[in-house]
Amino acid sequence: MTILCKLNDGDKIWPPPIWLMRQAGRYLPEYNVIRNKAGSFLDLCYKPDYASEVTLQPISRFDLDAAIIFADILLILQNFGMGIKFEEKIGPVLEKPLIENPVLNVITEVEKSKLVNVGEAINLTRNKLPREKSLIGFCGAPWTVMTYMINGRSKKDLSQSVKWMEDNQSLANDIIDVLVDLSAAYLILQIQAGADIVKIFDSWAGVLNESQFNNWVIKPTSKIIAKVKDVFPKTPIIGFPKGAHKFYEKYALETGLNIIAVDSELDRDYVRNILQKKFIVQGNISPNILLRGGAELKKDIELNINKFRDQPFILGLGHGILKNTPPQHVLDLVQFVRSLS
Ligand code: CP3
What we know:
The protein is α/β, with parallel strands linked by helices and 341 residues long. Helices cover 49% and strands 12% of the residues. The protein is built from 14 helices and 9 strands. The strands form 2 sheets. A 7-stranded parallel beta sheet has the order 1-4-5-6-7-8-9. Strands 2-3 form a two-stranded antiparallel sheet. Helix 9 links the parallel strand 5 and strand 6 (237-240). Helix 4 runs parallel beside helix 5. The protein is globular and about 55 Å long. 47% of the residues are buried. Coproporphyrinogen III is lined by residues 21-26, 35, 41, 68, 70, 72-74, 86, 91-92, 138, 154, 201, 203, 320.
């Protein structure tokens, strides 16, 4: 059994296991080499050899306890016939966002879509990864994926997406239902290929009011988790309702997840006193503090560990590693955590 599964089963693990969101990526020179060889970001995601290689890079360099398969939550959009590109400095750009063109042509069978390449990458990675290390599969949660489908690109202000959902409720619900089925099948495919834990990223959960949160976050996420648990009852599931501070406990209780990922802005006393009473938590060092490194980083790791150490937890970040982070800071973090008694 891998380290995160052991933690999920109640084993005491000290020092805490470490894995960091976006631990593979542009801050690593060896990533940029493969990224250039692959050509585009999407080619990198879809070529199993390359995807597997970049997944393993941070494990070789830092000896982290878990690998997360290199892919993207937006790959699923190709199942909707939505052409997507990742552009330098802009991020994802969709050819046919819903605000312009609400006509969709859906590939409902994951096995018949390019997502099978992610399964192949997982299979290759599992064969190379040391046995005790966990391999995390993932998908985007329906609401977060929909924000990109609606606008066609990253937006800071999501009021337009929310308005589109309210104005087009019947179509929005139909798309959410398709995303639920696809995402569950995709996670199942990833577990069959060798992922021993899966994570559902809801990066934009924080902009919704309570009824929207219930309808677009809790309900669909619970359905995905139930479908996955139906086939793989023992596989731990991590949920990440980023920014949804008022609803974190409700989300953890109602969706059926095992591990809750906490963002850097969530109060650590709340995490300890409320979430850790019932769930394993993961987080929540700030990616900005990791970027700055040094004494400030060390101090924050200490604060984090002292707050969370009485209950099982995964040491990690509140969000993804930033592009300009010196790799040495990640090494410092790992060495510091492993030196603790
Ligand atoms: O190490 C890992 O965490 C695994 C790989 C991973 C990526 N994206 C690779 C990636 C994971 C888990 C994701 C999830 C993802 N993708 C999320 C949820 C987590 C979060 O960050 O909130 C979201 C919202 C996306 C959508 C996405 N992908 C955006 C908005 C962007 C552009 C922003 C940016 O950082 O450039 C991406 C591109 C992306 N996904 C990159 C990487 C390494 C950078 C592209 C590149 O290398 O050219």
